[in-house]
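Listing 4. Sequential folding, example run.
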Amino acid sequence: MSKWHLETRQFVLPKNGHSLSECEDVIGINEVSGRFAIADGATEAFDARSWARQLACNWVKVDSGALTAEDFLPWVTNEGKLLQESWSNLHLSWYAEEKANSGSFAAFVGVQLDLESAKPCWKAIALGDSCLIHCRDTKILSALPISEPESFNAMPVLVPSHGAMQEAALQRVTVGCGSIEHGDVVLLLSDAASAWYLKLMETDESTRFNFDRLLEGMRNCEVAQLFESERQSGRIKNDDIAVIRIQVEES
């Protein structure tokens, strides 16, 4: 029996004016295998929510592999085929068919926590602008694939469902790893929340600590109120938000 256990929290918030069913940020959680993922479907892409759901929910089912660029490419290729096969019986307008022919796109970040080895650690893979942030004693130890708030832009390289685009895109995959200690927190955040959180690290530690406190306490209504206030102030863009907070504790 492992001497470690995980305290996991999750939070999803759609854009203002949109319902939760329209949210294109999707969370995947498998605490048993220690796998967690967020995928953020590109709004302009065809069936982006389905692609994001497939990436996040199916990646966490994998027992091993898909944590290197070499393993990720064939996994994404297979997932892309499954997605596009699901469109085969749809009756689409010419415009929708043109979009479908281009495939779908999503940012992706996934992490595997290994708590059974002598030295507990995490391994992660990401493509796009959804991020992993590893914190210890309130300090950020690692952030990937983006570590600076000014590095976010409107044209990130995303995971494509279309096979013809996958090999070139997946050459931009970021992988990383880190050691785990008691009390460490690993955050997975979609792009708007990632940029906001990294900016808070530089400018407003009190808001960052309050966000973490509310999230840890599962006070999701207050987390939503915090984000609404930040949207109104212009400190975070009006975009879908997804967050997974994983705290590692020694039993």
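-- end of first protein; second protein begins --
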Amino acid sequence: MTEQVNATKSSENKLNVPQTGEINISKWIMNGWDLVIKDFGEFLLLSFIYIVLLTVAFSTWIIGLILAGPLTAGFFYIIFNRIRGKEFYIGDIAKGFEVFVAAVLADILISVFVGIGFTLLIIPGIIVSALYMFAFPLIIEKKMDFWQAMETSRKAVTKNIFELSVFMLVLYIFLFIGVILLLVGFFVALPIVFAAIAYAYCDLIGLEEPAVK
């Protein structure tokens, strides 16, 4: 009887997106869109909180550097919970502070690398952005340190660098369209972009199964 109960719970805890290892840009974006639309109001509020906090924080440069990484990690924590079918709690964005050091250091290094890439024309910046797109998911999901997460992301993306650079370019265009739509569209585009990256992570790296309780 106990084994049957455990089997039922295990079945209920299965992820909505199994790992495939396949590149499917349109699927990732559509899955991200569907995920956000299901909790549209909550994601809109989460996006608003995220952007406002970072805008205020970067008025003092050092505070912005401290908050950006953990808040991004917390954003992914919420998205992964929704992919698993768990409840949406906006306060879970604070979970990123549980990996504070790794998130801060990763954010600083990635920002520097991407900034250097964009100064060398747009394409290198897009490629570098693609190389490290899974760093924050790895930090919050697998509790990796900043360098291990960055290197794991780089190695995973390098296998399909062209396709994933195109994916990153599409995401940048999506965000740009959001900005030109009187900035309001940006609050919608941002969670969709994060969710699309999360679905790519599920397929190419694999999301940890939630513990059976």
